[in-house]
Design goal:
The protein is mostly helical. The chain has one domain. The chain contains three helices and no strands. The radius of gyration is 32 Å and the shape is rod-shaped.
């Protein structure tokens, strides 16, 4: 674990040095030779973990949005039934009352 932390710190240091130098892309490509394979694999692993986390977060957020929409739909249906059913029953009752008179 200490080795990965040291490598991660090294990657952060490299990125800070690149930002401080404000160099162009060809110079940046020549700096790629100084990054070891182990540092590259740790960076790829970190990117993979970040991608998995972001996909999981997106799935959770979208499922919550769908759940909210379904609850809003259920609320609208219940509200509609609370208004519609008594109104229909009153119309039927009024129709029967008119038939009797």
């Amino acid at each position: 674990m200490d080795e990965e932390k040291r490598i991660t710190d090294g990657l952060k240091e490299i990125s800070e040095k690149i930002d401080a130098m404000d160099i162009s892309t060809p110079d940046l490509m020549s700096l790629m030779n100084f990054i070891s394979d182990r540092q590259a694999s740790v960076a790829a692993k970190n990117n993979k973990h970040m991608a998995i986390f972001s996909c999981t977060a997106l799935a959770v957020i979208s499922s919550l949005a769908v759940l909210f929409q379904l609850s809003a739909l259920a609320f609208a249906i219940v509200q509609g039934l609370l208004v519609t059913v008594p109104a229909v029953l009153l119309l039927i009752k009024r129709g029967k009352r008119n038939e009797l008179t």
